[in-house]
Amino acid sequence: MAAFVGGLPDDLIKMFTELEINTEQMLSDMITAGAAVVEANVNAKMPRDFKKVLNGNNVKITKVYKTPSDDGINCQVMITGYFINRHKQVTPAPLVANIFEYGRSGAPYPKQPFFRASFNESQIEKAMLDAQKKYIEES
Amino acid sequence: MLFNAEIETLFNGFTVDGESIDLAYLFYAGHADKYIVYSQVDSRNSYSADDDIQGVVAIYDFDIYSKGNYYNIIEAVRQLLTSNNWTWQPNRDSPDLYDVDTGYYHKTVCFAKPIQITNN
Questions:
Q1: Is the pLDDT of residue B113 over 60?
Q2: Most CB atoms closer than 10 Å: which of A70, B21, B97, B105?
Q3: What's the Cα-to-Cα distance from A116 to each of A33, A39, A95, B83, rounded to whole Å?
């Protein structure tokens, strides 16, 4: 009877072993790299009027977290903080962002969507693949 | 503004439950209890070849304003657009919103449609 014995190169076995250990870290780095692209886009596309009412950097990335129900590894890009108007009324900044993003009835100006347009799939994918290259060597 | 003319034609005489619904581009200056405002909010390259863009996907928001139940309007808008080769983008829809000072309920529904660019 014929027999066949095959072997993988040592460097490939080493890469698979390292990947097994580092998969979660790799995915975490990838998702953070994608989120950083979105964060930069949100800051760049944010309407000037909205930027004016905010103090400091109100666009933030959350910690990476897992959702066991779908085996997901996620993080969120969010708008935080408060807007205080000249009458000292305090409004959460996300609500103000909502008005810019979706508009409202009776508003004397058109809406200025900036948040959804910041999720550019090809840009995000490229950043994520660049982060992946640190872990997976391509030959 | 790739599809504005098509949208205006599609929504010409648009009625829901026997009630005529006004449509406006970017801003509605009327006083109807139910109306729709539409605008192009984004566009993406969908296909490139020969160092040029060959196809684009245009993304439009349809903002539905109503002083009452607006679910039938959403459903009618969705049916009208999807039956004319538009694709619903539910992950870009707004949450249910209510403008306290004007009394309008507000929901943004988002649709996309591809267009082929011909370079001669």
A1: yes
A2: B21
A3: 18, 11, 15, 25
Q: For residue B99, what are the contacts with CB-CB under 8 A and spacing of at least 6? A: A104, A105, A106, B105, B106
| Inter-helix orientation angle A10-45/A121-132, to 10° | 150
Among B39, B42, B101, the residue with its CB nearest the CB of A117 is: B42
Tell me, yes or no, if A111 comes closer than 8 A to chain B by beta carbon. yes
Pairwise CA distance, residues A111 & B80, whole Å? 24
Which positions in chain B touch A121 (Cβ < 8 Å)?
44
Task: Report yes or no: B108 at the A interface, CB cutoff 8 Å.
Answer: yes
Check residue B69 and give its pLDDT.
93
Q: Does the distance separating the beta carbons of B104 and A113 come in below 8 Å?
A: no
pLDDT digits (tens, 9 = 90+) for A116-135: 999 988 899 999 999 999 88
Give the total number of structural domains in chain A: 1
Q: B23 — phi, psi (to 5°)?
A: -125, 135
Find the domain containing A38 and state its range: 10-132
- Any chain A CB within 8 A of the CB of B94? yes
Nearest residue, CB atoms, A117 vs list B41, B65, B104: B41
CB-based contact A113 B41, cutoff 8 Å: yes
Q: What is the pLDDT of residues B75-112, one digit of tens each?
A: 999 999 999 999 999 999 999 999 998 999 999 999 99
Complex-level ipTM: 0.83
- The pTM of this model reads 0.82
**Does A47 reside within a domain?**
yes
- Residue in B92, B102, B110 nearest the CB of A106: B102
Better pLDDT: A89 or A54: A89
